[in-house]
Amino acid sequence: ALRRLSHYLLAHYQKGTRPVRDWRTTTNVAIDLMVYAILSVDEKNQVLTTYIWYRQHWTDEFLRWDPTRFDNLTQISLPVESIWVPDILINEFVDVGKSPHVPYVYVSHHGEVQNLKPIQVMTACSLDIYNFPFDVQNCSLTFTSWLHHIRDINLSLWRQPELVKFDRSVFMNQGEWELLYVLSRFQEFSVKSSDSYAEMKFYVVIRRRPLFYTVNLLLPSIFMMVMDIVGFYLPPNSGERVSFKITLLLGYSVFLIIVSDTLPATAVGTPLIGTYFVVCMALLVISLMETILIVRLVHKQDLQPHVPEWVKRLLLEQATVLLCIRDRKKFSRSRTQSSDISRQVDNNDSTAKLNHYGCEDPRECETVGGARLAPAFAGQAEGSPLMHGVLREITAIRQFLEKREEFRDVAHEWLQVGYVLDVLLFRAYLAAVLAYSITLGTLWSVWRDA
To answer: What is the CB neighbour count within 10 angstroms for residue 256?
Structure first.
């Protein structure tokens, strides 16, 4: 019965002619689509590769028979090369995929033809990677007859749009991309006021799973930024902070080199996460510059003059109040400590008169001090060269101690300035990092939940 029916149907069949008895009759082709897998998303070349199950359904008026004549056969499979099939293609095709060849179609006794086949589709798609790795892509598959206008071949949807939208029964969801839904829409279009053509558009909406990129890209960067902030708690007068910051900056540079191949790249845009990495690198450089400035202030104080008064008022008085530094009273006491000690020595120690000459070199004090101090001790040590030598040595020792005390005062002042400035810059840096992190976190949270 199958052989007789196949010979009956194909004996005088003309596959080169549209299968209608009246040429004014429109052949209606119902199509359906189910996404099986998302194979790859090439952001650089803007190409989406999917594997779909595609179904066509139309009526062939020359493939009808009476089932009672052929052992009640109501359905038969025929070679697809032997009958007429619509020339429906996908407009976004950019390459022929490795699709398996299905050599047969099903034909019912009413002339209804069902062409079911899997297709690997490589289509052009406008991919927006700005929100990477929380991006959602919307790629369209447009089915249309390449030659026949709408009066000859019209398109329709095989199933209801709601059934097509949320149908994930055959989707393999173990990859990087998750299928959200498939939208369908019918429309007509014409080129330069010519005949209209029927189009059936399917919008495949997919979302990237961000867990892999969050663990391997975002968390290491966040950890490095946290370590950079913790590095501010190293003493500002310690040289270890500079080496620590340089090591951290070097580690972040190596991290960027490693992840550069992971980030998607296009000729028209850069993902926000790339900007995030660049800004983090800039923050690390700013942190290193701030550390170098502070270390410069608190080292080599013997080569620096006294702290200017306006710097004292600005940093040691006003900034301490603004920053709510608990021990800010210590700064005001330390600035007057050396002068108080000098006044106490002048009042209680009779040998403080030796300081009136202001000798910085002990050799100068030998000549000046010997001439001026001799009358004060004339009664006790007149004509005694040994006593004069002892007085000269005492004067030299006192001048040396006073000079060293002055260097210590200068060093202490610059250390206080460096400490306050370090706290000020650290809090400004911390505020910038927090504001930047909150902004990006909010944006990514909105995109992930959208």
So the answer is: 16
